[in-house]
Amino acid sequence: MLFQVRPPAPKEADLTTVYDAIVVGSGAAGGMAAHILTSHGLNVLLLEAGRKLDIESELKSMEWPYDHPRRGEMPRDSHAITLNEYTVRQPPYAQGTEYKHVYSYVQGWGGSDYSKNIVVDEKDHPYTGTKYAWVRARLLGGKTAIWGRLALRLSDYDFKAKTHDGYGEDWPISYADIQPYYDKVDLYLGIGGHKENLPHLPDSLFQRTTRLNPSEVMLRQSLKKMNRVLTPYRAGVTTDGLKHNKYRSKCYGRGACGRRAGGCDIHAAFDSPTGLIYPAMDTGHLTLRTNSTAYEVTVDPATGKARGVAFVDSQSGQHYEAKGKAVVVAASTLESARLLLLSKSNAHPNGIGNSSGHVGHNFCEHVMGPSILGRVKDLVGKPRTLDDGRPGGFYIPRYRNLEERHPKFIRGYGFEGGGGTGMIPGRALSTPGFGADFKKTVRDEAGAFVHMGGFGEVLPRYESAVSIDPTVKDRWGIPVLKFDYAFGDNEKQMALDMAATGKEMFEAAGIEVLHADSDILTEGWSIHELGTARMGRDPKTSVLNQFQQSHDVKNLFVVDGSSHVSASCQNPTWTIMALAWRSCDHLADELGKGNL
Ligand SMILES: Cc1cc2nc3c(=O)[nH]c(=O)nc-3n(C[C@H](O)[C@H](O)[C@H](O)COP(=O)(O)OP(=O)(O)OC[C@H]3O[C@@H](n4cnc5c(N)ncnc54)[C@H](O)[C@@H]3O)c2cc1C
Ligand code: SF4
Predict the structure, then answer these.
(1) Which CA distances in Å does 59 have to 53, 78, 273, 282?
(2) In which element (H, E) is residue 453 found?
(3) pLDDT tens per residue across span 192-222
(4) What is the β-pairing status of strands 394-396 and 413-419?
(5) Which residue blocks in 104-261 are alpha helix, DSSP H?
(6) For a pocket test of ligand 1, which of 143, 340, 558 has the largest count of ligand atoms closer than 8 A to its C-beta?
(7) Ligand 1 atom 31: the closest Cα is on which residue?
(8) What is the DSSP letter of 68?
């Protein structure tokens, strides 16, 4: 039977009350904000644009393809945007299409029927400008409902990157400031991994790691000789269980992680509702209002401070305002920038918190594309092993521009990958032949493949920006974002190097290279948007201080990836949550002292 503790009953929102804080968005950032603020005893209203889904029956992690009428695929009237469409067309991508529903590319992965209510329908949520593969999830929990769970720390190579190579800005914090909060996130949410003692990829406080399989061990051993590291996937998954959280189970290694866009119906993989929001509701201090799309941070004209949040009920279309002593924006990097830019008033004519003109700018993320597929000849025909009973494969941390300096690009990249036998042999469809011989080849080779793909740091540039489109609006009449963003030469040079070193590492390990891709995928593919309201010491060139507090409006905080000063090449979610925890401790402290 499915492990499941029902969520607490929601409290009715009282819009005549002035809440201690209003949090906008319930993903990794908003969930953490709600959790920490309520743990300080504050009375918090959480506004979430999407609905609350019965997520366990949505995900059905263990359902087999043959138990689904279309083997897990979406109905024919629904379409996932392809790489080709992103390449040859400009947004809005759903415009002029005959399909009833259009989704971003992640719905092109297997099992798309299980995530069709999680990701947004592009018809309702258009955007304009330059090419961008924008993946959004509008529901309680946001993208954490299906995230890939690779949970990495940043280091001073990232926080002090300008000191290291002269480009951009240093963060206003160093690793020592955030390290205690990373520790708290690890212990509260659970993370599996293996200690490596690397200065550029600090270890977490790990629970039981997942096991590497034979092809991965072979690659790890070979990489050691090159002074590079392959480490088991550091998964934001509780492998040992969490005694303090009744809504989550430990990972039973059911091997369902890789079958769909994502999600875990026993919540071993972290998601914001079971990890943060339900425990916050249990304190009695959290009021959750779903179907509440914020479109303006309202301002007290007398003080210029944030007064509350104007929102539209996504189902009824009714407009409301909620009032709070502090406003915490956590709608995700791009949506938060949109909300700040939409919040124009006499006190803040360029949008709230935007006296610097930097809101929407310095946008950065990760470049993806170069990938490699290989076959380990020695493993062909060997008995198959149970390798996909785990929430991830491996990670190869950055090895460029640490001690040495690459002549063609600055910063670095890492690789995510995996090998071994899967329950469903992924290569069967591309294996030539038929009949008994075909089946034998598929079985013999099932455990012999290994693959990996790169994630590289994209430099923040002032001109990489989003703004409000002057004419196009979403389904609720809210002006949409316009992108003005493209990869630069540093990213292109880095991608060439990724492709070359990926191949080099496989060849050095004696892995037969079957396919190597060096093309860059469309901007946005990494789903790691960052930087549109960066932190900094100087209010003229940054939007937030080191506590993600607006330089202009002291009771306004923006606690998601928009605050990141640079992208690093490590996945951002663990850092988003550690920073949000730190900032919300500060918020509670300042509110208590009457400083907001
Ligand atoms: C398939 C996939 C794989 C991923 N893999 C990884 C990974 O391996 N490692 C990693 O670190 N990260 C990964 N990510 C990224 C990760 O999910 C995000 O970094 C993280 O969820 C960001 O948290 P957030 O709170 O900023 O945004 P979200 O989780 O997107 O939450 C934002 C919330 O705000 C709500 N919202 C938006 N606008 C409004 C509004 N106007 N009013 C009210 N509410 C609003 C949204 O509905 C949403 O619930 C992945 C994402 C996806 C989709
Ligand atoms: S492998 Fe673990 S984390 Fe992944 S779906 Fe199964 S139980 Fe959940």
Answers:
(1) 10, 18, 14, 24
(2) strand 449-457
(3) 999 999 999 999 999 999 999 999 999 999 9
(4) antiparallel
(5) 156-159, 161-165, 175-189, 214-225
(6) 143
(7) 27
(8) S
Distance separating alpha carbons of residues 534 and 110, to the nearest angstrom = 36
pTM of the prediction? 0.98
In whole angstroms, what separates CA 559 from the centre of its chain? 14
- In ligand 2, which atom is closest to the CA atom of 254? 6
For ligand 2, is residue 237 a contact (CB within 6 Å)?
A: yes
Tell which residue, 152, 86, 158, has the closest CA to residue 572.
152
Judge contact between 105 and 83, C-beta under 8 A.
Answer: yes
Q: What are phi and psi of 542, to 5 degrees?
A: -145, 165
Amino acid at 542: S
Are 171 and 159 in contact by the 8 Å Cβ rule? The answer is yes
Smallest-distance ligand from the CA of 238: 2
CA dist 514 and 127 (Å) reads 38
Among 117-131, 153-167, 421-435, 460-474, the least confident range? 421-435
- Dihedrals phi, psi of 178, to nearest 5 degrees: -95, -20
Q: What is the pLDDT of residues 506-524, one digit of tens each?
A: 999 999 999 999 999 999 9
Task: Describe the chain by its helix, strand, coil percentages, rounded to 5.
Answer: 25, 20, 55
- Neighbouring C-alpha atoms within 13 Å toward the C-beta of 50: 25
Q: Is residue 266 within 6 Å of ligand 2 at its C-beta?
A: yes
Q: Whose CA is nearest to atom 50 of ligand 1?
A: 147
State the ligand closest to the CA atom of 294: 1
d(CA 128, CA 468): 9
